[in-house]
Give the backbone structure.
Amino acid sequence: MSARPAPLPPDEAARLEDLRGFEILDSGDEEAFDDLTRLAAHICGTPIALITLIDSDRQWFKSRVGVEARETPRDIAFCSHAILQDDLLIVGDALEDERFATNPFVVSEPGIRFYAGAPLVTPRGHALGTLCVIDRVPRQLTSDQLTALGALRRQVVAQLEMRRTLLALKEAMKEHERDQAALQSANARFRSVFDHMLGGLVILTEDGIIEETNPAAGRIFGYRREEMIGRHVSMLLPEPFRAEGRDFLRRAHQQAIGRVTEWEGRRSNGDLFPLELSLFESPAPEGRRFAGNIRDVSERRAADRAKNEFISIVSHELRTPLTSIKGSIQLLLDDAGIAAEDRNRLLLAGLNNADRLIRIISDMLDIAKIEAGALHLDRRLCDVRDLVEQALATVETIARNASVRLVPVVAAEIPPVMVDADRIVQAIVNLLSNALKFAPPDTAVTVEATRIDDARVCVSVSDRGPGLSADQLPQLFQKFRQLDSSDSRKIPGTGLGLSITKALVEQHGGSIEVTSEVGVGTTFTIRLPGTAASDT
Amino acid sequence: MGCDDPEGIRKNMTMRLLLAEDDPDIQLIARLSLEKAGFDVTVVGNGAEAVRKAAEEHPDVILMDWMMPEMTGLDACSMLKSAVATRDIPIIFLTAKTQAAEIKRGLQLGAAGYIVKPFDATTLGTQVSAILGKTRDA
């Protein structure tokens, strides 16, 4: 059996914790420690020198000279005894010492007789293990050797501490690198959000100097980033704010911090536009910073205006015929005092306005259908001449009332077309009605059908009206758009006819174009694909 | 003549109304309705004619459409209100413009009242009288 095991040191728990903190157990060989053990063996003239560390149940060798094993059990370790004292443990002859006389290392391999162990005491006062020298013969150390061993032990402790500091440093650096990487990735994420957000962001110093802008802000204001950075925010504002200069930010701060407020902005080309601003303060090491979150609401305002205009037009267009329908019925119901001639006129007024209302409603439904993509075509092979004649028949009365002649010119050789007859007749009727609105009395409106090639046919409607200028043409097909949309316009209507016509023709795979000359007249031309082309 | 001539009294009390309206059907309906109510109605087809006619005939009240060719009812109203000779003639809008902002705009020009289309053809005259009564009381 083994020798009497050493008792545990009183600071065992703290000692073990201290030891673990070095993260050295089971680490590889290190030159710095091996140099010290070699030096110890050399100075003391022993075949064996070790740096041992006493773990909870083993002694582990950080460095070893003359021993192959990396560790031994703690309960038979000489060093377990050595760490119990502050000073060196010197065993001149193990066989003479009752603590070690029966120790397996003494009675068998490696046959220890001499042991000198210098406890490795950390600055925190815990003995982690020893620097020890061992011989197979009994012996003593000279005082020089003892001094040297003491110096070497301090070196070992210093080395251990240094190693630990280095490890901590490396760990700190790794952590720093991780932080750095996290920071970079957060920064990249922020950048990406900043660069891709729909709203404009302008970051200002306390003095209102633009420090950073995102691409959206550049798009909104029409400047490149470099043109804005370093300049005062007043460059983005209209005159009254420009003059305010530095005071602007104070006012904006009072009004727009954490709230969405409406301001006017100024683009690089001088255009003023409505914007929504929400200002927030962001702390920065260089001083207070203000971030302005900006939304260009000019399109929304324009859409609101268009919507209001549309509601106003629709309301007017529906109410006007209803006024005549309701009024004529009311007067006819109580017909006392109404001349027979007036009664007839009232009946006609009611009827005509009912028709007018029906047209307006069906136009509006058509537009709604077209916009919802729910307009379906019932295509059949049709003779172009029939389509033109049907359209002419529809507007005959209107033409007669307006004293305008309708002149059809249909080419003899014209291929049939694959179309929804009702819809194409509707399109031609719309063009004819439009022409009749503008044609002066005693002029002609011509409808001409010609063959472009086997695959295409065109139908054009020409009037001798006042004509249109080049800049008016693009607006023609816009929904609810009337060239004269003012309250004093002469020509009634919802402004839907031409946009419906265009949509109908395009749904057929055709196209529509217009040529016009002021004082001469206007020609609308529909191109229809023939039988060769037929999709949608 | 004097007081015992009922015809004369009635004539004196007959309100002379100028109707400015471009839609011929509505012209007819409004005129018939107002005539039944005892108004003496003159009809014009746009704002410019309304301004001219009002200056010439100085009607007791003008019933004015908003959307008319040549000159809108709004413009005609401002012109009439800014001319010394016509500024005291009460103007009532008779229009299919029914949005709150539009009504406000019309009244801000100094109109005495606002009747929206479709109007009630059996009570149009009463409505006009009611507005005029209110104006006189005010």
Observations:
- DSSP finds 14 helices and 18 strands in chain A.
